[in-house]
Write a structure and sequence with these properties.
The chain is α+β, with helices and mostly antiparallel strands. It is about 20% helix and about 40% strand. It is globular and about 75 Å long.
Length: about 220
């Protein structure tokens, strides 16, 4: 579990691809201070397991499902990535609940500077947009951000200079793709409401059937 507060930017030192699987070696410093094999690290918002490490880097494996569902397959040697260690029970909760399980990939359609902020319009599928709520939370490449507006096919986020400097979003431009994780609470609420919705639909269908056969 993560909070969406990026701890540092790492640099991809080695990328090995075998079909639809990857092994990534990432240069880092801060996240390595207490790392151990088997630890979870968020890499551009994707929860990955540390398989080996040294004082200057760590390695993770990317399986085919993650390869297909995220932007990790587009990384190149030298690419910067957002890094965050799993949330500690005794630490402050600065962002929102982030699982590191990506819901889909979005495309930046507009980047616009407004005074001390930069606005991004991100295009996403309807399956993602149904969980995007104005003033709600969303994780973009692992960054906990607030949604400022939602349209039929895009949503808008705004970043302050500190976030732009400390994360990979500072170098993103129109046309770039990003990993999106919707607010987990919204997904659980929808799951819990599904039986009630199905029951309501069944009830409506029964009423219509009775009416059509002269019982109402």
């Amino acid at each position: 579990m993560f909070t969406g507060i990026v701890e540092e930017k790492g640099t991809l030192a080695v990328i090995k691809q075998n079909g639809q699987s990857l092994t990534l070696k990432v240069n880092a410093s801060h996240v390595l201070t207490d790392v151990a094999n088997g630890d979870s690290l968020s890499v551009n918002g994707v929860c990955l397991t540390v398989t080996s490490f040294s004082r200057t880097d760590f390695e993770v494996d990317v399986m085919p499902e993650t390869f297909e569902a995220t932007t990790l397959k587009d990384l190149k040697r030298g690419s910067e990535v957002n890094l965050e260690r799993a949330m500690a029970a005794h630490s402050r909760f600065g962002g929102h609940i982030v699982s590191g399980h990506i819901d889909g990939v979005g495309t930046i359609r507009r980047r616009e500077k407004r005074e001390n902020a930069v606005y991004f319009d991100i295009e996403a599928t309807k399956d993602i947009l149904r969980f995007i709520v104005q003033k709600g939370s969303v994780a973009i490449d692992g960054i906990s951000l607030t949604v400022f507006s939602v349209s039929d096919d895009t949503f808008t986020i705004s970043l302050i200079p500190h976030t732009l400097q400390e994360t990979v979003m500072g170098s993103k431009v129109s046309g770039d793709q990003v990993n999106i994780e919707c607010d987990m609470i919204g997904k659980y609420v929808e799951k819990m409401l599904q039986p009630q919705q199905q029951e309501a639909k069944s009830s409506t269908s029964l009423t219509q059937l009775l009416q059509e056969n002269g019982f109402y």
